[in-house]
Amino acid sequence: MEATAKAKYLRSSTNRMRQVADMIRGKSVETASAILFGLGPRKKSARMVEKVLKSALANWQVKQGSGTRGGNLRVKSVTVDAGPLVKRIRPRAQGRAFRIEKKLSHLTVVVSD
Questions:
Q1: In whole angstroms, how large is the CA radius of gyration of the chain?
Q2: pTM for the whole thing?
Q3: 48 in helix, strand or coil?
Q4: Residue 109 CA neighbour count, 13 Å, CB half
């Protein structure tokens, strides 16, 4: 049985998010959560992925029914897709303006037993 959790419009670039996603793909949920907890103080994207992983675990528990624990769950897939760009203008010298593009990403986590 599978359970999915999605987070959209996360304020992080896809490259930064994929570095973290590659570390937990295919691992057990306990191992993945320990890895993300260790990365948490240093990487903002690790905290985002950890939240979505916990949500996927909660979704799996709801699907299974009350009283079940995810002892043998694995992270089946972690997908990071590009979201829309938020475009901002930065004033520069001599009346010019440079564009700043803030990248957003969509994250999908699938856990299964």
A1: 17
A2: 0.88
A3: helix
A4: 33
